[in-house]
Specification:
The complex is a heterodimer of chains A (148) and B (84).
Chain A (H helix, E strand, L loop, with lengths): L2 E4 L3 E4 L6 E2 L12 E5 L8 E5 L6 E6 H4 L9 H6 L10 E9 L5 E3 L5 E4 L4 E4 L11 E4 L7
Antiparallel strand pairs in A: 1-2, 3-4, 4-5, 5-6, 6-7, 7-8, 7-9, 8-11, 9-10
Chain B lengths: L10 E4 L3 E8 L4 E6 L9 H18 L3 H11 L8
Antiparallel strand pairs in B: 1-2, 2-3
Classes of the chains: A mainly beta (148), B alpha+beta (84).
Chain lengths: 148, 84
């Protein structure tokens, strides 16, 4: 099994088919193309997105439907094509929101630009919405998260 | 902010080598064509916002314990976070 050096998890051993390809990278990290999802049962519903290209690059995320059970996805045709998602091809997908802390110290989730993953084809994209239905700083916790 | 009125098919030029043409419009959307040198990145503004947000998200994880955070979310979220 392939190995990757990571800051969070030390040397990470992962299955070949666990590797996700972001053909365009992510905005702000255009060179980061390969990631793995790290799910730990006791941390459900948190999911960590660890870069295989950059040891220190790791995002904390959560399924959008764990944040808002009514979340209405909206993905541009160019983005769905990029990850091989058609209207009814039955691919298994996961939609995650990246978490961060706002300037005011509040924990927030980016519902404007969810990570859309085609698990069947191991392709992913950060699908930036063009509408204003959801915020890039959706408030989850109105105080600073603990630091370690 | 400079405001210029243009009709369909008309364009404007920025800095001599960037051309923006109005290709199409309907009630709520305008379709623009942009001709610019390869070295000039052209992105939707939301992408820039998301880029900044991603930088913040990447900094955030490096100093936050996911476990402690989950505890906080479970105990203090006004609407409980559902586990999927």
């Amino acid at each position: 099994m392939p190995l990757a050096e990571t800051e969070q998890f030390g040397v990470l051993e992962y299955e070949d088919d666990a590797e996700l390809l972001f053909p365009r990278g992510l905005p702000g990290f255009e060179q980061a193309h390969r990631f793995v999802l790290i799910k730990q049962p006791d941390l459900t519903p948190l999911v960590q997105l660890q870069s295989l290209d950059s040891p220190s690059l790791c995002f904390l995320s959560m399924p959008v439907h764990a944040i808002d059970s009514d979340y209405q996805s909206s993905i541009l045709p160019e983005d769905s094509e990029l990850v091989g998602l058609g209207p009814d091809d039955g691919a298994s997908t996961v939609v995650l929101a990246l978490l961060s802390v706002t300037d005011q110290g509040h924990l927030s989730a980016n519902l404007l630009a969810p990570i859309v993953i085609n698990l069947t084809r191991h392709l992913a994209v950060q699908a930036v919405r063009i509408d204003t239905a959801y915020s890039h700083e959706h408030l989850l916790l109105a105080e600073r998260g603990p630091s370690c | 902010m400079l405001v210029i009125r243009r009709r369909m098919g008309e364009s404007l030029v920025i800095g001599g080598d960037i051309e923006v043409e109005v290709l199409e419009f309907n009630g709520s959307q305008v379709k623009l064509g942009i001709r610019a040198p390869k070295a000039i990145p052209v992105v939707r503004k939301e992408i820039l916002v998301v880029g900044t947000q991603n930088q913040a998200a990447a900094r955030f994880i490096s100093r936050t314990s996911a476990r402690e955070l989950l505890e906080k979310l479970k105990t203090s979220s006004p609407t409980p976070i559902s586990a999927l």
